[in-house]
Amino acid sequence: MTNDADLSAAAESSLRGRLEEEAEQLDSQLRELGRDESSLDYDDNFADSGQVAAEQGENQALAARLREQLDDVELALSKLDNGSYGRCEVCGNQIGEARLEVMPAARFCIEHAG
What we know:
Elements: H1 9-39, H2 49-82, H3 97-102
């Protein structure tokens, strides 16, 4: 490490690679979910319209969670680019490297991690 408050260049590079890979996977999942959802042709007279509505709701909820995760990953990548990566958004302290290893898109230190 360059100092106690900064991530090592090697750790930062590793985390960037993981974040980029995660962004690709999330984007792929969103595209696949969108393709599946738009290609489904639901019959309005289908006997179990409640089941259809439930499945549509589940797909929408999943898409929202995936989009939120992708937004967090993209934010982390932008923070890597501007030099603010690894800082808690509440207190500004460095997020522990062990926490970032587990959750590379973490926005908060352990103390402020809701």
